Automatic annotation (TrEMBL):
UniProt-recorded name of the protein: HlyD family secretion protein
Record family assignment: Belongs to the membrane fusion protein (MFP) (TC 8.A.1) family.
Coiled-coil residue windows: 189-235
Gene Ontology molecular function: transmembrane transporter activity
Domain Multidrug resistance protein MdtA-like barrel-sandwich hybrid: 82-259
Highest classification ranks of the organism: Bacteria, Pseudomonadati, Bacteroidota, Chitinophagia, Chitinophagales
Localization per Swiss-Prot or TrEMBL: Cell envelope
PANTHER family, sorted: BLL5650 PROTEIN (PTHR32347:SF23), EFFLUX SYSTEM COMPONENT YKNX-RELATED (PTHR32347)
Length: 415
């Protein structure tokens, strides 16, 4: 008789299946709780730049390109207009103060000068004639007075004698009265003549004063016109180099038109273009350093121009002591412009990462050196070499400072 065999519940196969399922469940649970779910990206370590955060002196400066310029440039503007009749010098020539550069012709000015000169000669002749007439009138007055005095003396003598004889009835009263009237008439005539001559002389003196004033004014006008005629010859106001002459023989020049410039070669300055971001931090008195031929030269900002063009403004700098030998006008060179005093800070080398993150975060390598993890940071000031780290990094941290353009938004980079 066959006997029924009962199957065991905990068979080897079942135990194996349950153990396997449990293991899979535990793995899933572990992965769910403890595994790293951050987005990752595999990168090649030799294609990135890794820099070490340090602590040291942070120099507040910027590197800008400056161009050598003459210490002083004089514009040549036409004081008077005309057409160019002769050109003595070309651009690039060395000139001395007073050297002739151009000659202009202006017939209108020449005619006006000749007319004023003729008028002045006419006034001088009139003045001389007035003075001559005054002297002649004085001679005439003296002669007339002499004749009157002689007649008055005769009339007075006759009047005095007849006055004594009329009382004795030797001379008739009618004759005496006639002598008296003649005498008094001559005296009155003399008084009138004196007054007339005084008036004529005073009037002549006034005319002379007026003529002298007119002549003086005319002479001053002539001197001014003569100076203007002399200005038709354009001369070098200083010694230096005639950098340009922008006119040719036969061309017409208007008053005030620029015709060139002269560079003063007694010294040089440098003009730099600075980003408008620094316009509030750049002012006269700031120091700078210029490297030339293996030697460092101190400079100082003398003027910061407030006008901003294409996001940049100009700054003039002068050499503090000696001017480098061998520099030439138009030569460009980088200079180091100080913006403040050095200070101790945590330093992060400058790199392409900033354009992708704005300095808000970086990838920092972990201790194994096999991964770089995204970390938020805060940066302060910048110079051409370093950023000033305000928070988020410590000395010794290793940071990817090359561009993050190909990393997307991944939180972890795996090497």
């Amino acid at each position: 008789m066959d006997r029924k065999i009962e199957k065991k519940f905990w068979s080897g196969k079942r135990i194996l299946m349950i153990s396997g399922g449990t293991l899979v469940a535990l793995l899933l649970l572990y992965n769910l709780i403890f595994a790293d779910h951050r987005s990752k990206l595999n990168v090649e370590k030799d294609k990135i730049t890794i820099s070490t955060v340090t602590k040291g002196t942070f120099d507040q400066y910027i590197a800008v390109t400056a161009v050598v310029q003459p210490l002083k440039t004089i514009r040549l503007d036409a004081i008077e207009g005309g057409y160019v009749s002769r050109k003595y010098l070309e651009g690039g020539s060395k000139v001395k103060e007073g050297d002739s550069i151009l000659r202009l012709e202006n017939q209108r000015m020449q005619m006006e000068f000749m007319n004023h000169e003729t008028e002045m000669y006419r006034l001088i002749n009139e003045l001389q004639n007035t003075r001559l007439n005054l002297k002649q009138n004085r001679f005439t007055m003296e002669r007339t007075l002499a004749e009157l005095n002689y007649k008055i003396a005769q009339a007075k003598d006759l009047y005095d004698r007849n006055k004594l004889l009329v009382d004795e009835k030797i001379v008739a009263r009618q004759e005496f009265n006639k002598n008296k009237m003649e005498y008094e008439g001559l005296v009155r005539q003399r008084e009138i003549e004196i007054e007339s001559q005084q008036y004529q002389e005073e009037n002549a003196r006034i005319q002379i004063q007026q003529l002298e004033g007119t002549i003086a004014r005319t002479q001053r006008n002539l001197e001014m016109m003569k100076a203007n005629l002399n200005n038709l010859v354009v001369r070098a106001p200083i010694s230096g180099q005639l950098s340009s002459v922008d006119v040719e023989v036969g061309s017409s020049i208007t008053t005030g038109q620029n015709i060139g410039q002269i560079d003063d070669l007694s010294g040089f300055k440098m003009r730099a273009e600075v980003d408008e971001h620094y316009i509030s931090r750049v002012f006269a008195g700031l120091k700078a350093t210029f490297e030339f031929a293996g030697k460092s030269y101190e400079m100082v900002v003398t003027k910061a121009f407030p006008e901003v063009t294409n996001g940049r403004f100009n700054v003039d700098l002068n050499f503090v002591k000696e001017t480098p030998e061998g520099i030439r006008r138009g030569q460009s060179s980088p200079i180091r412009l100080e913006l403040g005093k050095p200070s101790e800070a945590i330093l992060l080398p400058v790199g392409g990462f900033f354009s992708d993150t704005g300095g808000n975060w970086v990838y920092v390598l972990d201790n194994s050196g096999k991964r770089a993890i995204k970390r938020n940071i805060s940066l302060g000031q910048k110079n051409p070499q370093f950023f000033e780290v305000l928070e988020g990094l410590e000395p010794g941290d290793r940071v990817i400072t090359s561009s993050y353009e190909n990393f997307g938004d991944k939180e972890v980079l795996v090497f």
